[in-house]
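Checklist before submission:
- one chain only
- standard amino acids only
- sequence pasted in full

Submission:
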Amino acid sequence: MSQLGPQNEPLEVPRNAYPMVRISSEFFLRSVDLLTQLQGDKLISGLVFMAVWHNHMHDPGGGTVGVRELARRLNLPYETVRRHAWGLVRAGQCTATREGIAVVLAALKSRSTVDWMRKTYLNTERMLVDLTRARLAKYEVPSRPALRQGKLTRDQMAVATASTRQLLAGIRMLGDLWNGDLLRGLVFSAIWTANVKHVINTATAATQAVLPDDQRRPVSILAISHSLRLPYETVRRHAIALEKAGICRRVGRQGMVVPASEHLKLAAGTVQAHGMLTGLLAELRRAGLKA
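Returned file contents:
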């Protein structure tokens, strides 16, 4: 059974770390969902496409990346990445050469890809608004017409690309924390995020400490299955493993909850996630965004 990796609690959790991660976890899971939708509810295919797409954005002149490098960047097994990469090639979204995999031009400009980037931008903006409401950021929503169709502006594309880069780092970090078991890490993240989702738009969202158990709401395995677009049995298996490990607790027929005591044990992961988020905010500010 997969367990979390080393959990040496840091000497000090940065100020605002818990509320910032509490809010940004929603952004992270929505980002994963957008990728899954992009590939017809295929989570791993979405992650592989994102990694290939991001490689192109980093190196438009080349853009080719080897499967082993993709596996390293995503912290996923080589064979899993190879299988999904070739699925993208067969679907005409990517092309394969001796050097590796690249996104085809038609896929880069397709309506579905542009729509994904638009939703990624709006998802980032939603997180920034939530952080600002909790007085954890200073985002000013730009005055603009509704962003529903057409190309993104240069600034909007910069925001979407930076967010995708952070999502890629978050996926890699989650794999590290769970010793390569990304799905278990996602199930865990979805459970604890759902437990506190009801406070995001309230004053409680800015609470500096870990929320106590009486402020956590259980979530059903079925709801997590729907939110991650994963088979019910897959989610149930991981949830049972988390329960046996003492990381999650079942609350009667209401569902699962990650108790506050477990969050305190996982402070190292909170510090990592907080560092990634502050890095994203700094990158957005360098790009000219008021965040």
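Reviewer check: Confidence is low (pLDDT under 50) at residues 5-10.
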